Amino acid sequence: MINGFKEFVMRGNVIDLAVAVVIGAAFTAVVTAIVEGLFTPLIGAIFNADSLKTALLVGLPGGGNLAFGLVLSAIINFLLIAAVVYFVFVLPINRMKEAQERRRAALAPAGAATAAPLTELDLLAEIRDLLATEAPKAP
């Protein structure tokens, strides 16, 4: 039972889902606070503006503005979230998977040929072939 649970948790799609939830829920507030508290004032000072919302404004004929500073803020926010998720989740999980593969390889008997695991594409092709052989022939 424990091994089954461990395999379930170590599947890629479960990890990807967990990372997506973390990105959306936990780190958004932290990264937004970092961007608004540290980067926005620095960039605003460089461009002599109160915040990124008022920095790098380009007026349009007929009214309105292009807010390049606001876009820059969103890009910084995204890059910070991506960096945190990569270094906190993706990198450690990849290292754990590599260590697990090394342990499995060390436990495998020497000289034993191991068959490559089936991929989803292999399984789908096998199902297609089975369905084709069992399908009734059209008159």
Layout of secondary structure:
Layout: H1 2-10, H2 12-46, E1 57-59, E2 65-67, H3 68-107, H4 120-134
Antiparallel strand pairs: 1-2
Helix pairs in contact: 2-3
Task: Summarize the entry for a quick read.
With 139 residues, this protein is mostly helical.
Report what the structure shows.
The chain is mainly alpha-helical. The chain has one domain (2-107): Large-conductance mechanosensitive channel, MscL, domain 1 (Non-ribosomal Peptide Synthetase Peptidyl Carrier Protein, Chain A). It contains four helices and two strands. Strands 1-2 form a two-stranded antiparallel sheet. The model has no long low-confidence stretch (mean pLDDT 77).
Structural class given helices, strands, pairing? mainly alpha
Please give the domain count: 1
| Biggest sheet layout | 2 strands, antiparallel
Report the count of strand segments.
2
H/E series, N to C?
A: HHEEHH
* Shape type: elongated
Main location: membrane
Membrane topology: Multi-pass membrane protein
Pfam family, one: MscL
Transmembrane segments: 14-47, 67-93
Index terms:
mainly alpha, Non-ribosomal Peptide Synthetase Peptidyl Carrier Protein, Chain A, two-stranded antiparallel sheet, 2 strands, elongated, MSC/AndL, cell membrane, Mechanosensitive_channel_CS, transport, mechanosensitive monoatomic ion channel activity
